[in-house]
Structure to design on (348 residues):
């Protein structure tokens, strides 16, 4: 983490409403200011999540996403613009966030998570936000997060439903405990509304903020299930897989919070 | 024994409903119940639920009430089972 010991007057003004939150205050804001969060893909989920983290004053955001904007991204990718069709998604997202909050650093990586970059990107972050559509990327991130003892917030959605969990290695199940293999039937494109993406992104951003600031109770060992068709929200208790090839070697008492 | 089954994500479309009451006899464990359930909604549903060896798919999550359930968990009359198919970001 960088070593910023104080907030500037500008920062106090921008974050004033959240500085009033009990249990957060200037100490919490400094924790956000000194933090780096890796956001895997800045689509409908990751883009909105990153927007909230920029608004909250997370000091450094690393955005990783390959490819150029397509028309069918625009129902949910709110950091983009129609004029940006055919141009880099991650550059548009980074530019928008820099304009939105010039007090933070935004690093853009025009790559998706892969075997070749995952170690470098994960070790550079304090918390990871997993928002990619492919299980291969999510499971790679999970493995590196466990190896390097980094908290990971995993967001997912389908049609009108969404799920959210926070992985703190050793304190609850990791993603490989839940998904021991890549689902055969899963495809990169699937039905969803942008408002569903935005809902789970906002909740995921709150999890990242809670983990960084030591606020509230993150969803460690729990999964939030949202059905926006019925407007129901349930929190389910999750179990670790004692034979998990990724995290079973970790003692259950690990208290890492990044 | 009657179990309320709640389907979420991709498997809901294959089941054709989000919620149903399932009467079964002789299915003491979750694994046995799911094998019976596999015959209920046609081949696409069965394909999402069970693999070629009739084993429940490892990519599905099962919750009884509000707790993550093991395939060897016992099911009881009146239980509410949620079957959560994989979902992802995007």
């Amino acid at each position: 983490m960088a070593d910023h010991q104080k907030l500037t007057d500008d920062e106090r003004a921008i974050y004033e409403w959240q500085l009033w939150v009990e249990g957060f205050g200037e100490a919490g804001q400094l924790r956000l200011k000194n933090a780096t969060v890796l956001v895997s893909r800045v689509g409908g989920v990751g883009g909105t999540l990153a927007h909230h983290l920029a608004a909250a004053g997370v000091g450094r955001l690393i955005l990783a996403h390959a490819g150029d904007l397509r028309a069918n991204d625009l129902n949910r990718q709110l950091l983009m613009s129609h004029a940006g069709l055919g141009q880099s998604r991650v550059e548009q997202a980074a530019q928008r966030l820099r304009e939105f909050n010039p007090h933070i650093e935004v690093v853009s990586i025009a790559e998706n998570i892969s075997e070749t970059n995952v170690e470098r990107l994960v070790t550079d972050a304090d918390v990871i936000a997993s928002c990619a559509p492919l299980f291969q990327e999510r499971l790679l991130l999970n493995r590196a997060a466990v190896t390097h003892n980094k908290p990971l917030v995993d967001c997912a959605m389908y049609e009108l439903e969404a799920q959210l969990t926070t992985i703190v290695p050793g304190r609850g199940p990791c993603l490989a405990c839940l998904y021991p293999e890549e689902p055969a039937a899963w495809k990169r494109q699937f039905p969803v509304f942008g408002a569903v993406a935005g809902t789970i992104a906002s909740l995921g951003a709150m999890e990242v903020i809670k983990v960084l600031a030591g606020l509230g109770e993150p969803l460690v060992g729990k999964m939030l299930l949202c059905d926006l068709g019925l407007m129901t929200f349930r929190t389910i208790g999750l179990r670790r897989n004692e034979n998990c090839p990724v995290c079973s070697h970790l003692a259950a008492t690990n208290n890492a919070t990044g | 024994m009657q179990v309320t089954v709640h389907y979420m994500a991709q498997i809901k479309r294959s089941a054709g409903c989000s919620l149903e009451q399932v009467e079964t006899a002789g299915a003491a464990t979750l694994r046995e119940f799911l094998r019976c359930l596999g015959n209920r909604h046609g081949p696409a549903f069965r394909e999402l639920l069970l693999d070629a060896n009739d084993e429940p798919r490892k990519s599905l999550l099962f919750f009884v009430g509000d707790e993550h359930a093991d395939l060897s968990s016992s099911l009881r009359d009146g239980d509410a089972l949620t079957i959560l198919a994989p979902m992802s970001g995007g």
Notes: Residues 2-84 of chain B form a domain with the Ubiquitin-like (UB roll) fold (CATH 3.10.20.30). Strands of chain B lie at 2-8, 19-23, 61-64, 67-68, 80-84.
